[in-house]
Amino acid sequence: MSVHEQFAEDLALYALGALAGPEKEALEQHLEVCSPCQSELRQLQSDATLLALSATGPVPPPRSRERLLRAIARERRAPVTVPKRSVWWLLAPYAVSAGLIVVAGFLWNQSRSLNRTLANLRERHSAMEKQLRVAQDLVNTLTSPESKQITLAPVKALPQPQGKAYYLSSSGHLILLANNLAPLPPGKVYELWLIPSTGSPIPAGLFQPDSRGTATVVNPPLPVGVEAKAFAITIEPTGGSPAPTSQPIMLGAAG
Amino acid sequence: MSGPQVRFVKSSNPSPRLFSYITRGSFALMMADTTAVPSDGGLVSAIASGDESAMGQLYDRYSAVVYSIALRVLGDAGMAEDLLQEVFMQLWRNPMAFDSSRGPLAPWLVAVTRNRAIDWLRKRRPETPVADVASFEPDLASKTEFARSVGKIRAMLDRMPPTQRDVLEMAYFEGLTHSEIAARTGQPLGTVKTRIRSGLLTLRTALTP
Question: What is the ipTM of this complex?
Fold first, then answer.
């Protein structure tokens, strides 16, 4: 097993909720960076669940069910939605996902033999769940108190173009919303750069503005935990460059 | 799908566990092709859309497990009923608290119940959120399969030396920390740690053929 031996026993205690004090803190710090220990922890938590199941046998009195159903009837509510600060298009994956579930439920009632249709739906459902995850990441990046919001302004005195980057270093999630961008000459592309506190600029996505000069970059592949000093945009040859080859046209310091 | 000004240039990759969950757990009806049983994920989604009957179905599936654990920790039938109510009400009020991409529902409910029960027992405020839980062997949908699994787990616990079983149960069902267990049993701290780990590893083998 590739679990770090010095943490092996503490992991078991942690899985049972029995670790406390500085040992707990040290383990939690280690878990943040050690994936073998994370997966061993999950396994130990499953083992703890087996322990829990040893207690099964008693059943609640029938009145408990009535009590619960009465209580939820009193708290009848509209479908759960995403937090208020989100904009309407963030709701779209939820709505489609919910719609898909309704469709799936209908099919179940209709016939149990529509296995092929169901397989197809499963695939779509999985795609929706993926989008849901993306939407959750988006909401988190936009609303997290740790999220840094950086306004990028043109380097020269061109008043219109503007970019806003939302960056959550702890998860490596980044969103850029830009508008009023000038159209690009053929063979060129805009490239976003994360300029770390130390080291060279890191490529953070390629984009083309649409006909209205608007462009978006969502969660480009970035290493996790990089503190950003600034974000910049350059014009690069199509396909992008590993390092900037031109002066930035937009730049924003991360506050 | 997306709004007119939004282009998803590159989206993040979902975790591989998400896929494994979808293929494994979300559509549990594959297991029983004669009766179309809604999956846990399907029921939670229905609950999220305000479906009260889905709540009833989920209650029928898991109330005994939740109640048993509450009763084992709290030792009082009235409190166990109250906790059962609270756990399901919490799911009704905030179904999104359960994140299906991080594991199946059953072990999540078990962990939520145990943690809340310990909070009640120790009269403290709600503490640890429930983290990821790996897959979960006994199939709670099948009563006979489940009863057989519980039998094996109990047999394994019965075969353990009492000193080992006791430290496991003190930690899990009484919510004692390792130093509290050491103080109560008079065992050295290191011995408590070793016994807890080897006890859990032994338990792991209970369901392997």
Answer: 0.77
